[in-house]
Write a structure and sequence with these properties.
The structure holds four protein chains of four kinds.
Chain A: H1 2-21, H2 25-45, H3 49-74, H4 86-108, H5 129-139, H6 142-173
Helix pairs in contact in A: 1-2, 2-3, 5-6
Chain B: H1 3-20, H2 26-47, E1 52-62, E2 65-73, H3 75-98, H4 105-124, H5 128-146, H6 153-184, H7 189-198, H8 203-220, H9 229-232, H10 238-247, H11 249-259, H12 261-265, H13 268-289, H14 295-315, E3 320-321, E4 324-325, H15 328-358, H16 371-374, H17 376-390, H18 396-407, H19 412-437, H20 444-447, H21 454-469, H22 473-476, H23 492-511, H24 522-525, H25 530-577, H26 584-608
Antiparallel strand pairs in B: 1-2, 3-4
Helix pairs in contact in B: 1-2, 1-4, 2-3, 2-4, 3-4, 3-10, 3-15, 3-21, 4-5, 5-6, 6-8, 8-11, 8-13, 10-15, 11-14, 11-15, 13-14, 13-19, 14-15, 14-18, 14-19, 15-17, 15-18, 15-21, 17-19, 17-21, 18-23, 19-23
Chain C: H1 7-23, H2 28-53, E1 59-67, E2 72-78, H3 80-99, H4 110-128, H5 132-141, H6 143-153, H7 159-188, H8 198-201, H9 212-229, H10 239-245, H11 248-273, H12 275-301, H13 306-326, H14 330-360, H15 377-391, H16 397-409, H17 418-445, H18 463-478, H19 481-484, H20 486-493
Antiparallel strand pairs in C: 1-2
Helix pairs in contact in C: 1-2, 1-4, 2-3, 2-4, 3-4, 3-11, 3-14, 3-18, 4-5, 4-6, 4-11, 6-7, 7-9, 7-10, 9-11, 9-12, 10-11, 10-13, 11-13, 11-14, 12-13, 12-17, 13-14, 13-16, 13-17, 14-15, 14-16, 14-18, 14-20, 15-17, 15-18, 16-18
The chains are: A mainly alpha, B mainly alpha, C mainly alpha, D mainly alpha.
């Protein structure tokens, strides 16, 4: 079981790094897709099957498709060798390293963190987590769900308006 | 309302009516002023009868402070009030003629009445506070009168100078009053007298107080350090000089010192200061007078020198003189000289005014000459006045100068200085008379001079009578006890009269028939360059210091603190603006940095607890 | 007395109501004149009544509770000192409105009269408020209108900069003062509950609830705050340029009336509530007021413009009032209050004449002026009166107050203490003020006439305020007991 | 079996990589992607804590964590939609995707 964990986390991290390092936006988008798949797998190892599936379904399926669509729409070329902004580079690396070192120090003395992942007994409720999560969402968090619905509606209207505004702005520019 | 209050307030009433009502009709206002002066003179004759305090008005009282406008009549006041009102009336009458066709005639007479009001205020005052009030009012009225022809720059400068120098004197005077009030808690003269008898006060404080009060007298009576304003005050009309700068105002200082002789007696150091300043003034003024060519300037310096005499005499009050304290009698000598001097100096000034009026406002003696034949009455009265001033025996000058010299006779230095001054006085007066009256006329104006109208001659004649008779006992006996006058010993009177005659003869011999001044002593003519020294002093200390203060004010306080803080805040503002660059990454970077710092802080607090 | 409307409330609301009326459309000067006349009348009545009843205790009391927890009452009352200052305010406001023109600036001039009314209301409110909060609030009311007036209707090149400077400077001053007042109100509130009412904050007859040390450190911000408002020595650089650039009525109101708020504050709030506090800082105050008299005096002598000189001279005279306060005996405080009244009227008179001169002449610079006395006789005579009044000529109120203050400093002074030495040096200020005032008078009205030959004399209807102020100065100068009778009783209760 | 610390370390690394991408890259699309990575890293941490919530390796009994992750993902989706619309509008207006040129918000 731990072997799988290491494989999937390695996949996720390497492809995550590829996203950042890649010149070509399309290849970085695709590497992000793979990284998200790795992540979904990790969710599965944590017995959060519903979340794993949603991750694949929503993120990898919808979001990345949208990204690639936009990249193609705006046909953004491979990035030319613009002069590297060393200050930003240096700053970025420093902050990231500080973040990682701080994390390491913290996790060092985070006692509850050392507990091993126990395999679930057969027939434990966790396996029907989709049903349980569904119940939770539609009973305790019903109101939040409606809110979420409205939010998504607003987002779609926003996108429509933005793109349409775009149309009229073009006309005024010519 | 007692008669004293009427005498005090009538001139003020006249001045206000002139200012408010009859401003547009000069002749009416002139008569209003003259009538008020005449009524005051008549009332003073009535007033000479009673004694002691006559009425008081509680002007200001708060907490423990009681300032009153209280009037009292003592021997001194009687003598002085007579001089003030008599000379005042005569000057008023003389001015009717002298200022007949002057543009600001109403303003002039209002100023004269205001002056009479302030002068009577000083004379009748029974406490220092009231005297200080009228001291300043007299300063203002002399400012108005000297600056009568204010269109002339020189007159405007002269009046400003007179007021400021007087103001410096008032500064000292007030300091002295405050010191006395602090020490004794008394302001009125009688109160101070009783306080002195009751307990002895710390002598250094008393000496300092008396020096300060003398400083007030120096300012008003133009003694040496503060005498520079008197010669310039001749810019004013001549009757003004006659009234103010000969008889009354300048004598106020001596009068005040005479009133507080008991204080001077209690402050020996201050007394010696007073004597020496008086003697110095007498000598210096006499020297300067010998070289002046303006008739009024000569008389101004002669007034200065006579004042020096009076101050010296008053300074002697309380000095032991061979066994018994001559005390009051010394200041009486000073006051006696003041009394006689008022008459013949006013006579000389009015005479000079008549001469100037006749020579169409010509003041330079070298452009006059041979006026004896042309203006007999003025000339004769002027000569009698000169004789009185020089101290020839029968006249009043002789008696009072003897009394003064007698007061100083045990102090050989001052005696010698007094004698020299007596000689010089006689010398410059005879110089003046020979040039102006004898010999031949030196200019067209002098040749056509004619006798002045009657209204100007009557005051001259009355004053001549005063000058002749003032010296005898019956004239001064009713306000100074003849017994208390210091008696000159031995040959002093004889020596003095010989010096007087010698001076006159010397003057006549040197100056008869000359067209220009044979003796040229630049130092005396230029008034020992004191004016220039003062000018420099004012320029350096006052204007220089003012300029420095202004620069400091602008640089230090305004620039550094006020603008400095303004610049600091705007500087901080622009510094912080740098952080608001539009760059996305820098925002993210700062965001990240903030997170790390917060985590770091949290971890420290967790681990440290 | 509380409950129904008292005269004091009436006096304060009139200018506010009129300001409102002018704001929404009334004729500026007409309404302002009505308010000025009404206030003058009422002010005189208040003064007469308080004079009749003795200045010791509070009259015309009225209070409206606004808040309970920190007990906040919109209360007004007038005792001796407030009555005097109310009279001063109404007189100066009347004269300020009289001499302000029908068409002040380019615009309709409504803002001009609204601001004037607000300044007047601010001053009146501040002088009668019985609690700390409104004492401070009313003074702040007058701060912004002054800024607007100097900025918009002022004269001179740097009028906007000066407007900013005075506002920020007084703003900082008020801030420091606020700090002090809050400390005072928090520390001194009786155990019952926090209260703004000055009478409740006043310490009882027993020993003072606060230690001398705390009193000392609470008194400092009050002294500096009030000092800035009164242009005490190191904080005086805002005053002269502001009065020089301000239109005449604002200069009259600010120099004549609003500056007295600082001194009133010290006498009403700081001294009675923190007696030991004052003693701690007395030596410092003596040095500062000497700076005011001598240092600013010399700066005044060096001025070359009439309006700047008058601005500086008003700063200089503040030194004398502080000297009066520093004597801490009833003579000194009586002299100080009388000086406040006298200086208020005389500086207002001087600024109104300076305003009329500025309107007539092309410049106020001394070197380019001369000999105007002949063709402007009325102005020459009245400026002469005003100049001699401010120098301290006997017969005017300034002299009476100066002499009271000097005598106060020497009360039972056997030997020369620090107060006496400071007073002797301050006495030299009398000569300094004579120097610059006479130099100005000589330059403008005497000597040959250099320019401005066509300058006409003051028109008839502008003469009333000038004559009124001179008459008032003379009356209080000849009979100072009218004012002084009100003050000592009050001092007794402090 | 993997321990909680390892999961946290992994999600931390993912977050760091995402953050590095945001800081270093100048193409706004890439930055947007890295943003998504950071979000999902947070989700991973949430689920990890849920899984180990019950103590010694057992999952917590309530499912609030998963509901929260579900909401986060939903909101992220909406955010991506709006974000990309803005990027498109931006591209049309400025014809560039480089962050340095887009600094009109300068103070």
């Amino acid at each position: 079981m731990s072997v799988l964990f290491y494989i999937f986390s390695a996949v996720m991290l390497v492809f995550g790094l590829m996203v950042v390092l890649n010149r070509n936006p399309v290849s970085s988008a695709l590497s992000l897709v793979v990284s998200f798949l790795g992540l979904a797998a990790l969710f599965i190892t944590l017995n959060a099957y519903f979340i794993g599936v949603i991750q694949v379904l929503v993120y990898t399926g919808a979001v990345m498709v949208l990204f690639i669509f936009i990249i193609m729409l705006l046909d953004i070329k491979k990035e030319q060798r613009r002069d590297l902004n060393y200050v930003a580079m240096g700053g970025g690396i420093i902050v990231v390293l500080a973040l990682i070192s701080q994390l390491a120090i913290l996790l060092g003395d985070f006692v509850p963190g050392n507990q091993q992942l126990a395999t679930l007994p057969e027939g434990s409720a966790v396996h029907q987590d989709v049903k349980l999560v569904g119940e939770a969402v539609f009973t305790d968090f019903n109101f939040h769900l409606q809110l979420l619905g409205i939010l998504l509606l607003v987002a779609t209207v926003g996108v429509v308006v933005l793109s349409r505004r775009q149309g009229r702005a073009d006309r005024s520019q010519q | 309302m007692t008669t004293a209050f009427i005498i005090l307030l009538l001139p003020l009433l006249a001045a206000t009516t002139i200012l408010l009502v009859t401003r547009t009709r000069p002749d009416v206002s002139a008569y209003v002023s003259v009538i008020s002066a005449a009524v005051c003179f008549l009332l003073t004759i009535v007033l000479l009868g009673d004694n002691g305090s006559v009425g008081s008005f509680a002007w200001l009282n708060v907490g423990g402070l009681e300032l009153k406008i209280a009037l009292e009549i003592t021997g001194l006041t009687k003598g002085m009030i007579l001089v003030v009102t008599l000379v005042g009336l005569l000057v008023h009458i003389f001015s009717l003629g002298y200022m007949k066709d002057d543009a600001g005639k109403a303003r002039y007479f209002a100023g004269l009445s205001l002056f009479m009001f302030s002068m009577t205020g000083i004379v009748l005052a029974d406490n220092f506070a009231m005297m200080f009030i009228f001291w300043e009012l007299v300063g203002v009225s002399s400012y108005l009168l000297i600056g009568h022809w204010f269109r002339k720059n020189s007159a405007a400068e002269a009046s400003k100078k007179a007021f400021l120098v007087n103001r410096i004197g008032d500064f000292g005077f007030m300091a002295g009053i405050l010191l006395l009030w602090g020490a004794t808690g008394e302001i009125s003269f009688s109160g101070l007298g009783q306080a002195l008898d009751r307990e002895t006060f710390d002598s250094t404080l008393l000496n300092w107080a008396m020096v300060c009060i003398f400083c007030g007298a120096v300012g008003k009576s133009a003694q040496v350090p503060l005498h520079v304003w008197l010669p310039d005050a001749m810019e004013g009309p001549t009757p003004v000089s006659a009234l103010i700068h000969a008889a009354t105002m300048v004598a106020a200082g001596v009068f005040m010192l005479a009133k507080v002789t008991f204080l001077i007696a209690a402050a020996p150091v201050a007394a010696s200061v007073i004597q020496h300043v008086g003697a110095l003034t007498a000598l210096v003024a006499a020297l300067m007078a010998t070289q002046q060519s303006d008739i009024k300037k000569i008389l101004a310096y002669s007034t200065l020198s006579q004042l020096g005499y009076m101050v010296m005499a008053v300074g002697f009050s309380g000095f032991v003189y061979s066994g018994e304290v001559i005390g009051v009698s010394a200041s009486n000598a000073g006051f006696f000289h003041l009394y006689t001097h008022a008459f013949f100096k006013a006579l000389l000034f009015l005479g000079a005014g008549a001469v100037i009026y006749a020579c169409h406002h010509e003041q330079d003696i070298w452009k006059m000459g041979g006026l004896l034949r042309l203006m007999p009455v003025t000339a004769i009265t002027f000569l009698i006045g000169t004789a009185a001033l020089a101290g020839l025996p029968p006249l009043s000058g002789f008696w009072s100068k003897d009394a003064v010299m007698a007061a100083a006779q045990n102090n050989t230095l001052l005696l010698v200085v007094g004698a020299i001054t007596a000689f010089l006085t006689a010398f410059y007066m005879s110089r003046l008379c020979t040039i102006v009256f004898f010999g031949k006329s030196r200019s067209v104006a002098a040749r056509e001079a004619s006798e002045v109208p009657l209204v100007m001659r009557v005051p001259l004649i009355i004053l001549t009578l005063g000058a002749v008779l003032a010296g005898f006992k019956f004239a001064y006996g009713w306000f100074i006890n003849p017994a208390e006058l210091p008696h000159p010993e031995g040959a002093l009177p004889l020596v003095l009269s010989v010096i007087g005659v010698a001076g006159i003869v010397a003057g006549y011999v040197i100056y008869s028939g000359r067209d220009k001044d044979p003796i040229r002593v630049k130092a005396f003519a230029r008034k020992f360059y004191i004016d220039e020294a003062y000018h420099l002093l004012v320029r350096v200390f006052q204007d220089g210091l003012a300029y420095v203060a202004k620069v400091v004010d602008q640089l230090l306080i305004d620039g550094l603190i006020v603008r400095g803080s303004a610049r600091f805040t705007s500087g901080m503002g622009s510094l912080l603006r740098g952080l608001q660059g539009g760059n996305l990454q820098s925002h993210a970077f700062l965001f990240g940095l903030g997170v790390i710092i917060i985590i770091y802080l949290i971890t420290i607090t967790i681990t440290s607890r | 007395m509380s409950g129904q409307v008292t005269i004091i409330e009436f006096i304060i609301t009139i200018p506010l109501v009129i300001a409102l009326a002018i704001g929404c459309g009334g004729s500026g000067r007409g309404l302002a004149l009505f308010a000025a006349w009404a206030n003058l009348l009422l002010g005189a009545i208040v003064f007469a009544v308080v004079l009749a009843r003795g200045g010791g205790d509070m009259h015309f009391q009225s209070s409206h509770i606004l808040l309970d927890s920190p007990e906040l009452t919109l209360g007004f009352a007038a005792d001796g000192m407030s009555a005097i200052l109310v009279l001063l305010t109404v007189i100066v406001t009347f004269c300020a409105v009289r001499i302000s023109p029908q068409q002040p600036g380019k615009g309709s001039g409504r803002l001009y009269y609204v601001s004037l009314m607000l300044i007047a209301a601010g001053a009146l409110g501040a002088f009668c408020a019985t609690d700390l909060f409104f004492l401070y609030a009313f003074h702040e009311l007058a701060l912004i209108p002054t800024f607007l007036m100097i900025g918009i209707y002022g004269h001179g090149r740097e009028k906007v900069a000066t407007a900013w400077k005075i506002t920020i400077y007084l703003g900082v001053g008020s801030l420091i003062l606020l700090g002090g007042l809050i400390a005072l109100y928090v520390q001194l509130s009786p155990t019952g509950g926090l209260t703004f009412d000055i009478s409740k904050l006043a310490p009882g007859p027993g020993d003072h609830p606060l230690s001398a040390e705390t009193q000392k450190w609470i008194f400092l911000p009050l002294l500096i705050g009030f000092g800035i408002l009164v242009s005490l020595f190191p904080f005086h650089s805002w005053a002269a340029p502001a009065y020089a650039c301000a239109p005449a009525p604002v200069a009259m109101l600010h120099a004549g009336v609003l500056k007295k708020f600082g001194l009133y504050g010290i006498l009403r709030v700081a001294m009675p509530l923190l007696p030991e506090g004052f003693d701690a800082w007395k030596e410092l105050l003596l040095i500062l007021l000497l700076g005011n008299i001598i240092y600013v005096g010399f700066v005044t002598i060096s001025q070359r413009y009439l309006d700047r000189m008058l601005g500086h001279s008003s700063v200089m005279h503040m030194g004398y009032i502080f000297l009066g306060i520093a004597c801490c005996n009833s003579i000194g405080w009586g002299g100080a209050v009388l000086m406040m009244f006298a200086h208020g009227i005389s500086i207002a008179l001087l600024f109104s004449l300076c305003g009329s001169l500025r309107a007539r002449l092309d410049t106020l610079e001394f070197t380019r002026l001369g000999g105007l006395g002949a063709n402007m006789p009325f102005l020459a005579v009245t400026f002469g009166f005003a100049a001699f009044a401010s120098i301290g000529l006997p017969g005017f109120a300034n002299f009476a107050s100066e002499i009271t203050i000097f005598f106060a400093a020497f009360r039972e002074a056997g030997e020369l203490g620090s107060l006496q030495v400071v007073t002797i040096v301050a006495l030299w200020g009398v000569v300094i003020s004579a120097v610059y005032m006479l130099r100005a008078y000589r330059r403008i009205f005497q000597g040959e006439c250099i320019g401005n030959l066509g300058a006409a004399d003051l028109e008839r209807e502008a003469r009333l305020p000038v004559v009124l102020m001179i008459v008032i100065l003379l009356i209080t100068g000849l009979f100072p007991n009218i004012i002084l009778k009100l003050v000592p009783d009050l001092v007794g209760t402090l | 079996m993997p321990t909680l610390n390892e999961y946290l370390m992994v999600s931390g690394l993912l977050f760091a990589i995402g953050f590095a991408g945001v800081l270093m890259r100048r193409n706004i699309i890439i930055i947007f992607m890295c943003l998504e990575m950071m979000l999902s890293a947070a989700n991973l941490t949430l689920v990890a804590f849920w899984r180990f919530g019950g103590g010694n390796g057992m999952p917590a009994d309530g499912y609030e964590a998963q509901v929260l992750v579900f909401f986060v993902i939903a909101v992220a989706a909406a955010e991506v939609a709006v974000g990309l619309a803005i990027i498109v509008a931006l591209f049309r207006a400025r014809c560039t995707v480089h962050v340095e040129d887009l600094n009109s918000m300068k103070g």
